[in-house]
Design goal:
Strand content: 25-35%
Order of helices and strands: EEEEHEEEEEHEEEEEEEEEEEEEEEEEE
CATH superfamily of the largest domain: Kelch-type beta propeller
Number of helices: 2
Largest sheet: 4 strands, mixed
Length: about 350
């Protein structure tokens, strides 16, 4: 718990407090709803500075019209919340100062009254965590209550995975960290010096649990060896399939396991219907480039692939008869509307 001194407020046209602030502090401002939550959960206490006297604590009043903030009554009007000067509200503020995990990945998921955000950390970029099997670091951030909730994690290490939404509204998480290597200096430039990519895929079931899906394919021409993707790009296609591209494959000193490629540049597609099976290889040529590519579908059944070096290239992305649109067709599942990056024409 921290005590926070409030020196300014922002109000609406009716005079109701929208946010409280202290421009000289590290927290700067707090919207009304989150300040109320802070007070009621004991996360923080807020005070109005006294004019030569003690600071006055801000409390929450439960009125028929809803909850609001006010300072406790005092005979000195200089330390009342209502008399504080106005401030210009910032568009951004720190929502929560302790997410509990290193949220390497985040996705807005369809539950909670105002939406919730899935936070994935995996080993949290920590070698000791990975060695100890401390890879189950997943949380839910609830927007309405500004709280962090504990939930289950996928079985694989989700650090540097890829993710995209399935047509039913579930988030598919694919790839990630199969294992750490002993050294990673300039790892992205040297074959087999990089992290070892995982083949695992799982779907977040929007209820705090996960379902394991078919794994990614092994190295081309092999039945079990290699494959996997460390830091891939996953993209939802117009027909609900998931395109996976890029990432480092599995690395091992055991040549029966090791994938000899530096990058897994052969695209794969996961097909959720009718029965999920092994991810088939997508049609089209192999693409090459950095790992964390940004990929979007554009008209003409092509995607634009943007890399860290600023290069872009077009390649087949959407299925036949699909293209992007300013108002793409929606895919509805379980009452949740998702907008795919491509739409059928």
């Amino acid at each position: 718990m921290a005590d926070r001194l409030v020196t300014h407020v922002a109000r609406d046209s009716s005079g109701d407090v929208l946010s409280i602030a202290n421009p000289e502090s590290t927290w700067f401002q707090r919207r009304r709803e989150w300040a109320i939550r802070d007070i009621e959960t004991g996360r923080h206490r807020y005070f109005v500075p006294g004019d030569g006297g003690p600071d006055r604590r801000i409390g929450v009043v439960h009125a028929p019209s809803g909850r609001y903030l006010r300072s406790f009554a005092d005979e000195d009007p200089g330390n009342n919340l209502d008399t504080l000067p106005a401030h210009d509200r910032r568009p951004w503020e720190v929502a929560h100062d302790h997410a509990e995990v290193l949220a390497v990945h985040a996705a807005l998921v369809p539950h909670g009254t105002q939406g919730q955000v899935l936070l994935l950390g995996g080993d949290e970029h920590d070698f000791d965590n990975a060695e100890a099997g401390d890879i189950f670091n997943t949380r839910i951030y609830d927007v309405a209550t500004n709280t962090v909730l504990h939930i289950d994690s996928p079985e694989a290490d989700a650090f540097c995975c890829g993710h995209a939404f399935l047509p039913d509204g579930r988030l598919l998480v694919g790839g990630g960290t199969e294992s750490w290597r002993s050294q990673h200096m300039n790892a992205h430039m040297h074959t087999e010096a990089h992290w070892s990519g995982a083949r695992d895929c799982a779907a977040y079931d929007n209820d705090g649990t996960w379902t394991a899906l078919a794994p990614m394919l092994p190295e081309p021409g092999q039945t079990t060896r290699g494959g996997g993707r460390w830091y891939p790009t996953l993209l939802t296609l117009a027909d609900g399939r998931i395109l996976a591209v890029g990432g480092h494959p599995r690395v091992s000193d055991d040549q029966e396991v090791n994938d000899g490629r530096h990058g897994n540049w052969l695209p794969e597609i996961y097909d959720p219907a009718p029965t999920p099976g092994p991810i088939p290889t997508a049609t089209g040529s192999t693409c090459s480039g950095p790992r964390w590519v940004r990929r979007r579908c554009h008209p003409g059944r092509h995607s634009v692939l943007s890399t860290a070096t600023g290069t872009t290239r077009g390649s087949s992305c959407c299925p036949t008869g699909a293209s992007s649109s300013p108002r793409p067709t929606t895919v509805s599942a379980g009452g949740t509307t998702r907008r795919p990056v491509c739409s059928t024409t």
